[in-house]
């Protein structure tokens, strides 16, 4: 028993028809360009959302997490193994430095992430996170 699947033919887009993804990216870029900055033009804070690429150690503070990086060789070129899934700084550490933020952005689950330490941003990224329903089903 064979089935033939026919691919749906779509008409080519005409000039002037919108692409939802491009429209979204355009709106995001415009919002960044119109966002208010401090009087001196600097960025006051950086808030991070993502997965292991930008996780600064949140999973260290999650009970029973299997995705942790608080042991060597992680952090070998950093101060120590802090939970970052790299041997040195993560992209958001570098971005924060380029934006002129004073310190590394703390992870939101760290006990020290409170008070004045979070005035310049917070990192909510967690290794293994995802937006799809099947992310947690393995």
Automatic annotation (TrEMBL):
Key words, A-Z: Hydrolase, Lipid degradation, Lipid metabolism, Secreted, Signal
Q: Which InterPro entries match?
A: GDSL, GDSL_esterase/lipase, SGNH_hydro_sf
Fetch the Gene3D superfamilies from UniProt.
SGNH hydrolase (3.40.50.1110)
Which biological process annotations from GO are given for this protein?
Answer: lipid catabolic process
The GO terms describing molecular function are: hydrolase activity, acting on ester bonds
Q: Where is the signal peptide?
A: 1-39
Q: Does the keyword Signal apply?
A: yes
Q: Name one GO cellular component term.
A: extracellular region
Question: Where does it mainly reside?
Answer: secreted
* UniProt entry tagged with the keyword Hydrolase: yes
Where does this one sit in the cell? Secreted
Q: State what protein this is by name.
A: SGNH hydrolase-type esterase domain-containing protein
